Amino acid sequence: MKNSIAIAGGIIGSFLIAGTSLADGGFSAHVSQCVEKFANPAMGASVMLECNAADGKLADCKVVENSAPGKGFDKAATCVASFIPMAGKTGTVRVPVKFQPAA
């Protein structure tokens, strides 16, 4: 199954990740697991998270916008956020997460 997720943030930058499984259990594998666990991979959605960045990780993420309420993308975005590296950034950050429907 192939999903895509785009994550962008002021201090994170922008990148596109294909949600296919990796043998090493990398970021893309985590994205796929989060989407498959909480949402419908055939659908798309945009979610804005507000998180605390500390020690190179995001924590205490809260959903501030969700284009598909009740469809599980809020939980999928929060799940994905726990795997986004922050490279030593600290403070409150907004993280937009866009889920592309599976092809």
Proportion of strand residues: 35-45%
The total of helices stands at 2
Tell me, briefly, the overall form. globular
> How much helicity do the residues have?
10-25%
Class from helix and strand fractions:
alpha+beta
Query: On the 0-100 scale, what is the average pLDDT?
Result: 79
Order of helices and strands: EEHEEHE
Question: What is the topology, as strand order, of the major beta sheet?
Answer: 2-1-5-3-4
Structure, described:
With 103 residues, this protein is an alpha+beta fold. The protein contains two helices and five strands; from the N terminus they run ββαββαβ. β3 and β4 (57-66) form a beta hairpin. α1 (27-38) runs antiparallel to α2 (73-81). The radius of gyration is 13 Å and the shape is globular. The N and C termini lie close together (8 Å).
List the helices and strands and how they pair.
Layout: E1 4-9, E2 13-18, H1 27-38, E3 45-54, E4 57-66, H2 73-81, E5 91-100
Antiparallel strand pairs: 1-2, 1-5, 3-4, 3-5
Helix pairs in contact: 1-2
Features of the shown structure:
alpha+beta, globular, 41% strand, 103 residues, disordered N terminus
Compact overview of the structure:
This protein is an alpha+beta fold and 103 residues long. The chain has helices at 27-38, 73-81, and strands at 4-9, 13-18, 45-54, 57-66, 91-100. The protein contains 2 helices and 5 strands.
